[in-house]
Design a protein that fits this description.
One of its GO terms (molecular function) is structural molecule activity. With 1214 residues, this protein is α+β, with helices and mostly antiparallel strands. 30% of the residues lie in helices and 28% in strands. The protein has 32 helices and 61 strands. Helix 10 packs antiparallel against helix 11 (699-709), helix 11 (699-709) packs parallel to helix 13 and helix 29 runs antiparallel to helix 30. It is extended.
Length: 1214
């Protein structure tokens, strides 16, 4: 049993397959009807208008309808396209058990617990017949697939066959009046339209199901007496099939094989042989009783409903075993080995391969292996738990195909030819491969490197071994593993013609690898992958249940065509795909390979092929354009596109200003002109920038363009235009750009800013004007600042006065040249139009011709138009602007060589972080977010506020800034680490402002401050070291170890000093003071500092009359051999005094005999064996309650967080 699809739901009582689509309806005990796509495994729709369980459901053969019947006594007819119930048929008086559409007439038959069967006309929505006769619940009723018969089963222990011929004559073709009259008499005087033809009695209990054979005059029934009975149509009982252990729920004939399938409340599905009347197979479920069976009308699919859902399954595999060898195909069909020749497309039957009479399920060969030189065929099947058969095909029997040959047999689930006259057999029990000769004798045994469940051919002398999660190529001669690759569970292996690539097909994935199993790409499919083959160009063509697809060597894939039925691809020759279908028939399909050949040519950079395909084929569509864009060929995509907006976008992307201008003219929208201006500015094409700004009347940008290009003539014209438009701000800006003081004074005066006008005139030495304005101001003359020397505000000198920027000369690419010539050849006019004169739309005249009269005319025009809001009162096209050498266009030099903008180089900051996992280098490059992510992953750091200033210092210290020209912004340059042996053109990593030597200096300073008792200062230094370490980079592994050692040293000091400072704050709690002093002595300090800590603790405890503890500190102090005599003397005195009175006045939470560490947050001892958590960065230890808090020692990391560890050198990565 091959389960294809399974659902989990309420109890399934009714099932129906759709005839064409991969759909199945399931009606549930909860009242819901589900519509599933069993191929995709998705729920498409649900219908829930019934009140109570729905026991029957059925799809119409051709209309988008289905019918359902439920415990609410209602029959509902639904349209699944409209997602609603069309109408309800009422008439039954009890639960409805089954419903079914007639295959030809507009009828529905229904069976009910009201002991009747009703036939309805769903077009007229009426009941046309009531079949009475059963005297208990009618459990099922169904039409015969060809004749005018209905079979029904009832709990009255009978099966009845009803004749509906009279009903057909009456309702379908009342031909003449006489017939109508007889019908009328029949209706008036109780004529019957459906009569009982046979009553089948034989069951001892109620009958649950009865079904017709699709072609033969047979009926099968299943009942509560646990028996399945086979009947002839004339009520003759043929046989009884016993085996079920509980009520038989449903039973049916298989459409294509001589078998009966039944299911039961004993939680099993049983398959029976009709001819032998014996059980073939039993499939059981653990906990679920079965209720219903359904068969697909055309395909080899069955479905069964049970207590917790349903399953769609096949009884046998339909994939024929086949092997391709050169021009020939060997395959199995109907217990024969067959041979097909591709060149002549002729097929012949070779030999019978199974003894007649061995009809058990799933015994057909699974795999076929062929040795062409010896003409030997090896077939593997699941018989006897896995076995093989070896046939030698003689040339003279090839055409006859009737010679019965006794095969050489053996056990083993997998067998393949590995040489001319040798084949390998897998022995799963010992995990060995047995190499045998053609006499079926073992020649050699070889153990396998992995637990293998199947072997495949992998070249002469090699086998590909499959395990659950990997495949291995194993050389049987040298007993070496040639290659290994982790994969999903592999079902089929397809080698390319030259054996240099292999496709590993699993249920929902395809893995492509080379001959040594080096991974190339993986494709994932939602629908099951069925087969595949390689074409001559190295493209893998494969089929899923409903598509034929291609896979390019780089992993790009696409659909070639949709399939009606699944196929098994055997060979690809040019555009012809040879395949086997599920009936074992050879088919040849012609496909259109243009799309994938085009993509392959692009991939392999065969641009001549690409060119010819563009010229000759009809490749188009959004998908192809998107593909070309994605792969970096927008200039090629341009030649597929007719839509101007798409052309414009592609032209901008490929830097083709000419086409962009032509498209912008066609579209003529403000946004497109603006984007064209931005791109032209990027390329330095000032003429087109100007043209684009003119088209959008973007005067501010135009003025600025003229300023930076130094075009003062046009700037003065812009001043006049602003005056005409009465744009005061524009006038003032233009005057400012021109450095025209008189104009600025005039504008300020005209707008009423007299004080500003006076100051401007006065500062610039225009005394006459200043005096006149002073007279107007009277007493309100603004005072000028004293002692200041005014400087003249002049416009900056232009960056470039020479028009367009000089462009880099590059070689014309194959596409630019070829496609251009092609365009010329096909459409000279278009080329001319695209390259036409842009200036004609703007009637420009030379600056010399722009006389005062023209301006006056413009002014008059503006006045005449008045307040016309629609057009804004002034139109650019009506104004004679200065001439710009005809239309702005790409310079002739670029036209002839086709300029292609060079791709911008990668910024150094990006190079620094490209392959670096060092946080410091990411900070230097300015990528703070990735640096923070790295530090979080490596050291568990979450609190970055202490590092903020260091990040900024590190970033600014890795850059230097140069000022090139006064008018331009500063240029930042990356400062790289000096490396004498480095290659000249390879960028070095960044120079960093923090170094390990600096930290060593800081450590010494911290020691010095600790010795001097400046604990706050020392703590600041030590914490500074802890905060700097994540941002340093060292060269060697030895230095890495030193850095890690430094973290431990500094952590001990930080924790100790924090405790000491805390102790000094706690004047009111002498007990806690003593504890903290005691804990301080257990920090791993330098010996001089440890002596001072011991002396301190000893003094405090002695004063508090804790003599036992004080004596302990005195002993530990003397053990360090103190150099300062005063320390030793004090210790000896305390020891003597304490030994005379060995008592402690107060109980301390301190046990010096039991090893412990101190919690870095609560300062309590954590004794050996107690649970604790640690900081992933500084490794300080904490009580479990501190987990997920910020570490109190380093103030950076999260206590207990997962972290990979400190990474501070590239040597760690190598």
């Amino acid at each position: 049993m091959l389960t294809k699809f399974e659902t989990k739901s309420n109890r399934v009582k009714g099932l129906s397959f759709h005839t064409k689509r991969p759909w199945i309806l399931a009606s549930l005990h909860s009242g819901v009807i589900q519509l599933w796509d069993y191929r995709m495994g998705t729920l498409i729709d649900r219908f829930d208008e019934h009140d109570g369980p729905v026991r029957g459901v059925h799809f119409h053969k051709s209309q988008p309808l289905f019918v359902s019947g439920g415990d609410d006594y209602k029959i509902k007819v639904w349209n699944y396209k409209l997602h609603r119930c069309l109408f309800t048929l009422l008439g039954h008086l009890d639960y409805i058990r089954t419903v079914q559409f007639h295959h030809e007439y507009p009828w529905i038959v229904s069976a009910s617990d009201d002991q009747t069967i009703r036939i309805w006309n769903w077009q007229s929505r009426t009941c046309i017949s009531v079949l009475t006769g059963h005297n208990h619940y009618v459990m099922c009723a169904s039409f015969h697939p060809k004749e005018d018969l209905v079979v029904s089963a009832s709990l009255d222990q009978t099966v009845r066959v009803w004749d509906t011929a009279a009903l057909r004559k009456k309702t379908v073709s009342p031909a003449d009046d006489i017939l109508r009259l007889s019908q009328l008499n029949g209706d008036l005087f109780g004529g019957v339209d459906a009569v009982v033809k046979y009553v089948l009695e034989g069951h001892d209990r109620g009958v649950n199901w009865a079904a017709f054979h699709p072609t033969l005059p047979l009926i099968v029934s299943g009942a509560d007496d646990r028996q399945v009975k086979l009947w002839r149509m004339n009520a003759w009982e043929v046989d009884t099939l016993r085996g079920h252990m509980n009520n038989v729920s449903s039973v049916m004939f298989h459409a294509k094989q001589d078998i009966i399938v039944s299911n039961s409340e004993d939680k099993s599905i049983r398959v029976w042989d009709v001819t032998k009347r014996t059980g073939l197979q039993t499939f059981r479920r653990e906990h679920d009783r079965f209720w219903i069976l359904a068969a697909h009308p055309d395909m080899n699919l069955l479905a069964a409903g049970h207590d917790s859902g349903m399953i769609v399954f096949k009884l046998e595999r339909e994939r024929p075993a086949f092997a391709v060898s050169g021009d020939s195909l060997f395959y199995t069909k109907d217990r024969f080995l067959r041979f097909f020749e591709y060149s002549t497309q002729r097929e012949t039957q070779v030999i019978p391969i199974r003894r007649p009479g061995s009809t058990s399920l799933n015994q057909s060969p699974r795999t076929l292996s062929y040795s062409p030189t010896e003409n030997a065929v090896l077939l593997c099947s699941d018989v006897d738990g896995g076995s093989y058969e070896l046939y030698i095909v003689h040339k003279d029997t090839m055409s006859r195909g009737d010679t019965v040959q006794e095969a050489k047999r053996g056990g083993g689930g997998s067998a393949v030819f590995i040489a001319r006259n040798r084949f390998a057999v897998l022995d799963k029990s010992t995990n060995q491969v047995l190499v045998k000769n053609l006499k079926n004798e073992v020649v050699k045994k070889s153990g396998l490197p992995i637990a293998t469940d199947a072997i495949f051919y992998a070249g002469t002398g090699n086998v590909l071994c499959r395990a659950e999660d990997r495949v291995v190529i194993f050389d049987l001669q040298q007993r070496l593993v040639i290659g290994e690759l982790p994969t999903p569970f592999v079902k089929y292996v397809v080698w390319s013609n030259e054996m240099d690539s292999v496709a590993l097909l699993s249920k929902h994935a395809i893995v492509i690898a080379n001959k040594k199993l080096a991974h190339q790409c993986t494709l994932h499919e939602t629908i099951r992958v069925k087969s595949g083959a390689w074409d001559d160009n190295g493209v893998f063509i494969y089929s899923t249940l409903n598509h034929m697809k291609y896979c390019l060597p780089n992993g790009d894939s696409g659909i070639i065509k949709t399939l009606e039925v699944p196929i098994y691809i055997t060979k690809i020759s040019g555009n012809t795909i040879f395949c086997l279908d599920r009936d074992g028939k050879n088919r040849a399909m012609i496909i259109d390979a243009t799309e994938y050949m085009f993509k392959l040519s692009l991939l392999k950079k065969r641009f001549d092929h690409v060119m010819s395909m563009i010229r000759n084929s009809q490749l188009c569509g959004q998908a192809m354009i998107a593909y070309l864009q994605q792969k970096g060929f927008p200039e090629v995509a341009l030649h597929f596109v007719k839509d101007e907006r798409t052309r414009f976008n592609l032209a901008l992307e490929s830097g083709n200003i000419q086409i962009a201008v032509a498209s912008a003219k066609e579209i003529d929208e403000k946004e497109h002109w603006y984007r064209l201006g931005v791109e032209a500015l990027r390329q330095g094409n000032a003429g087109i920038v100007e043209y684009a700004y003119q088209r959008t009347k973007n005067f501010e940008r135009l003025s600025f363009l003229y300023l930076i290009t130094g075009n003062l003539d046009k700037l003065s014209k812009m001043l006049k235009i602003a005056e005409v438009k009465n744009d005061v701000m524009g006038q003032f800006h233009n005057a400012l750009y021109l450095g025209d003081i008189q104009e600025r004074v005039k504008i300020l005066e005209n707008t009423g800013h007299i004080p500003l006008a006076y100051i401007t005139a006065k500062v610039h030495g225009l005394e006459e004007v200043a005096e006149r304005l002073a007279a107007d101001l009277g007493d309100n003359i603004p005072s000028l600042p004293e002692g200041k020397v005014p400087s003249l505000l002049m416009p900056p000198s232009p960056i470039s006065c020479s028009g367009d920027w000089p462009l880099l000369r590059v070689m014309r690419g194959i596409f630019e040249g070829g496609l251009e010539n092609m365009a010329r050849g096909t459409a000279e006019d278009d080329e001319e139009a695209a390259d036409g004169d842009w200036g004609e739309e703007l009637e420009m005249v030379d600056a010399e011709d722009f006389q005062n009269g023209d301006v006056t005319a413009v002014l008059e025009g503006a006045e005449a138009e008045g307040d016309n809001d629609e057009e804004g009162g002034w139109d650019l096209e009506d104004l004679d602007l200065p001439q710009e050498a005809d239309t702005p266009r790409a310079s002739l030099a670029t036209r002839s060589t086709v300029f292609v903008a060079p791709s911008p180089g990668m910024p150094v900051s990006q190079i620094w972080i490209q392959k670096s996992s060092l946080a410091a280098e990411h900070v230097a490059a300015g990528n703070f977010d990735t640096a923070m992510r790295l530090l979080h992953r490596q050291l568990g750091i979450k609190n970055f506020s202490p590092l903020k200033s260091m990040f900024l210092d590190l970033h600014s210290g890795s850059q230097t800034y140069l000022r090139a020209v006064s008018a331009t912004s500063v240029i930042s340059l990356a400062v790289e680490r000096w490396n004498e042996s480095g290659a000249p053109n390879v960028r070095a990593p960044p120079a960093l402002v923090f170094s390990f030597s600096q930290l060593e200096e800081k450590l010494k300073a911290g020691y010095k401050a600790t010795t001097a008792g400046k604990f706050t200062e020392a703590l600041k230094l030590f914490i500074g070291i802890l905060h700097t370490i994540p941002l340093i980079v060292v060269e060697t592994r030895r230095e890495v170890d030193e850095v890690k050692e430094l973290i431990i040293i500094v952590k001990e000091y930080v924790q100790g000093l924090q405790m000491e400072l805390k102790r000094r704050e706690m004047k009111s709690d002498p007990v806690r003071q003593q504890e903290l002093a005691a804990y301080f002595t257990h920090c791993n300090l330098q010996t001089p500092h440890l002596r001072l800590a011991l002396l301190n603790a000893m003094t405090i405890c002695y004063k508090a009359k804790n003599f036992v503890t004080a004596a302990n500190f005195a002993r530990r102090l003397l053990e360090t051999n103190p150099q300062v005599e005063n320390q030793a003397k004090t210790a000896r005195q305390v020891l003597q005094a304490s030994e005379r009175n060995m008592t402690d006045a107060t109980q301390l939470s301190y046990d010096f005999r039991n090893p412990f560490v101190v919690c870095g947050a609560t300062y309590v001892p954590i004794y050996r064996g107690q649970k604790d958590v640690s900081c992933p960065y500084c490794s300080a230890r904490f009580v479990p309650a501190q987990e997920a808090q910020i570490c109190a020692v380093c103030d950076l990391a999260v206590v207990g967080a997962d972290a990979s560890g400190l990474l501070c050198s590239s040597s760690q990565i190598r």
